[in-house]
Amino acid sequence: MNQRPWLLAAVIPWVLALSSCGSINVNALPQPGESYSGGHEIVMEFENVLNLPERAKVVMDGTGVGVVTKVEVSGEAVGVTASIAPEVKVPSNINPVLQQATVLGDLYIALERPQDGQAAPALGPGGRIALAQTTSPAPLEATIATLANFVSSGSIQRIQNTMIGLNRVQPAGGQPALRKLVYQVSADVQQLGENLDTVDQWLHGLSQTTQLMEDKIPTFQFWFSPKGMAGFDRMLELGSVIAALFPTVGTYLYSGGYWLVPMLETLADGFGALQQNKWVFEDEYPAWQRLFTDFFLPQDKHPAINITSIVGPDGRELSGNVQDVLRILGAAP
């Protein structure tokens, strides 16, 4: 009975020593590099963080700005607490992404700015980035499954068959033939570059055609409406009747239309005579116009004859002897 106190006194120190060794954490040991102990903390929510270690670096714009200090599960997300350098301002619209520098390297957090470049207020101490702004890596099982699907689906075999097909397409003759082919392709590309204005005109015409078709969309809609389809049906019926009529008329003209030849010749002669008469009439028209406008119309307007001179057969002027003139005309006895 006296040995038990001594036994307990010897065992208890060993148990305490072993328990204290079991509580040692590697992450609690001092680590090289910046600790960012004087900075402020922010919390980032991720769907999963896989094997993100504590003290993982936080990078923004290619420069380390902090380290991960704590990882804990909160609800349906994983909260990652990071200590950020005091002089660094992290925008509230930042997008944290879990990345690896190499295939077997450790994960780290990259703070990527939004592509739209919009400015946002900086996160203060204890600021939180929601799950919608973060990007978690794909699970390792999904990556392995995708790689296995790629290998087993025959993709490698298809790539090999593609290379074999390209080798078969290569022209016979070895390197000189291939050089000739490349030279011809280069010349064609150069000619295409020199005639880009033609291509631009073609594209401009295609654009105008497309715009015209877009402007005619109401017309197209009417064509393909019930009323338009009914019109197409009637036109097809009328076309079938006309198509049957034309061969009949053609056969009649071919077999019994020999009488048309003299008739057409007579019509040609008649039109020729009309053309000749037209030319003659155009030549005579000015004289007839002058006769009508210069002589007939004035006489019709003033129906009188003014005698200004009368010359006898011997050349004597007789207009001075009015009585003799009237006697000659029979107007006086």
What can you tell me about this protein's structure?
With about 325 residues, this protein is α/β, with parallel strands linked by helices. Among the domains are: about 35-135; about 170-210; about 305-333, no CATH class. Helices cover about 55% and strands about 15% of the residues. It contains 9 helices and 7 strands; from the N terminus they run αβββββββαααααααα. It has helices at about 5-20, 140-150, 155-170, 175-195, 195-215, 215-225, 225-255, 260-300, 320-330, and strands at about 40-45, 55-60, 65-75, 75-85, 95-100, 105-110, 125-130. It has a 7-stranded mixed beta sheet with strand order 5-6-2-3-4-1-7, with no helix packed on it. The longest helix is centred in the last third of the chain and has 42 residues, at about 260-300. The termini are far apart. The mean pLDDT is about 80.
Attribute tags:
333 residues, alpha/beta, 9 helices, 7 strands, 53% helix, elongated
Write the layout of secondary structure elements.
Layout: H1 3-22, E1 40-46, E2 57-60, E3 63-74, E4 77-84, E5 95-100, E6 107-112, E7 127-129, H2 140-152, H3 155-169, H4 175-194, H5 196-215, H6 217-223, H7 226-256, H8 260-301, H9 322-329
Parallel strand pairs: 1-7, 2-6
Antiparallel strand pairs: 1-4, 2-3, 3-4, 5-6
Radius of gyration: 56 Å
Q: Tell me the distance between the termini.
A: 208 Å
Q: Indicate the low-confidence ranges by residue numbers.
A: none
Q: Would you count the extended β strands for me?
A: 7
Number of helical segments?
Answer: 9
What is the chain-wise order of helices and strands? HEEEEEEEHHHHHHHH
Query: Could you report the average pLDDT, rounded to the nearest whole number?
Result: 79
Helix-strand category: alpha/beta
Which word captures the global form?
A: elongated
Sheet with most strands: strand arrangement: 5-6-2-3-4-1-7
